[in-house]
């Protein structure tokens, strides 16, 4: 009987503590998110520190999907299909020019890169403001017809964890069309 | 009695049962939570559009605790979540198209009726529906509540069902009231005999007297009245109070039939949270608006949509925007006429063209210095560069030798519209000792004539400051000065997200972001490259950037 109870106890504990893996799915894309990810509802999103900027983001512009992954906030947009903005290098120039203001203020943390992940390629920007790190990413399929945009916010101290997480996410992007 | 199983066999059997349970538990606990929209059960719904909308709705407005209980009632303040008190009746959902939206409209489930009390009328005089609007891939959900006035209902509340989002009775008198599913106020309209008479808004700015605010402005006069609405839930035959919100109703006057007197919020149940404080409406936040763009024309400084949509239905939720511009502000077209004499004269036009032709990826620019305060002629200043892609440094002067710097023009090689830094340059010059030491009349001259021109390969942008906008600009500058990176990150995020959400080009996204941040403090004028056909670039009532020519 001891063995039975032991087996039963271990199984129940495993079932309770085992973290469910979340898969982000919307039209044209599927992304397996790391263990521990959970989706935030609107009230939780509104309560995030990043929502207290001077001019609030209009509701219509907010990312429809927000996740918390071990304290790192991940936002995902709907996939843009056949976007007029599907040129990654042009998009990079756009973001570089906008971020030029950081450099003018003496903040030289901004970087941007276009690189390949599996069959997709991605534009990634990264910068730090007031101890908060920001990743923005655009993952595009090989045919350049589908683009998934997202961004991550993290504590500067979690930079290594955020980078690893970003790579995981981008590697896991699967366009379904 | 013979044992059915020997002892050893029984143990093995029990062990097998336990292992089976354990396996099921492990598999269940560790299964992937696939949040694919299409996977939600929609067995009773045959229309795939409705099934998908249901799935989206239930993903975003779930009820963690299941059906609400009486313990949930009397929730007030920021914790109030209306969606916890009703369930949409998906079986009665209707799907149709309106205003470029795919509309799904359905009544509430009869078992979870909610009511809206306005004035002294009973909450039974209201009927709430769930409205889901899908545009492109984006869903938005609202609770639409129709309140009938006694003169319309004539004691027959079944008439409420005659009205829907897409069509209302021709003689409808009452109110349509939009909130998010959680109960966050969006906007609303009051009707008299089928005609819109007023709009419910938040964030209204006006001088109040005795609970009412009256402000006369040309050409229309508007009256603002505080209106409080209270949510109730029907439990059996009893209405249970949930929450109160107060808004401002803006009515064009003279209106002999002001429909809604303000009501006193119920004092029981700890109600009263979740809305504006009575008698002290919130000040308008800075936000970009084209002053009263109606039918593609720029009118006076009003942004209240008192026009019927024209198809027999109610205005779309949020369609009226936040009419924070119910205050006399400078007509941007008047400002354009006055300012064009300076920024669109032949010298400026030639200088803009010369800057645009400068080769390479760097920014080039030129100061625009008047030769005197009484003429429209300019000093022939040089075109300069810092040899950088993201920076051009102007040089302000205010004397009869070097000229009086009222403006500057520089190129954005990447094609973006003016940036916050470009706007703040105008404000920084106002603080320059070379100007401030010359006295009030010089400062006023600068304020009336200052501008910043940004040239791209496709367009020329000019920024001027509204005569009433210097204070707001100063306040924004203080924010910027305190945290320039945070300020610019706000701008960057808005531009980026507008671009993603609306699939627009760089120039449109940045022009939107600038308008969104600086709002009424500035005017943005845009002309096709090489021309002086300036039009107003601003944000319309739908929250989109529009370029509107002046009459």
TrEMBL record, chain A:
The keyword Signal applies. It comes from the Bacteria. Keywords: Signal. Residues 1-20 form the signal peptide. The keyword Signal applies. This is PsbP C-terminal domain-containing protein. It comes from Mucilaginibacter rigui.
From TrEMBL, chain B:
Residues 252-293 are annotated as: Disordered. Keywords: Membrane, Transmembrane, Transmembrane helix. Residues 268-277 have a biased composition (Gly residues). It comes from the Bacteria. The keyword Transmembrane helix applies. PROSITE patterns: PROKAR_LIPOPROTEIN (PS51257). Residues 256-265 have a biased composition (Pro residues). The chain crosses the membrane at residues 12-29. This is Uncharacterized protein. It comes from Mucilaginibacter rigui.
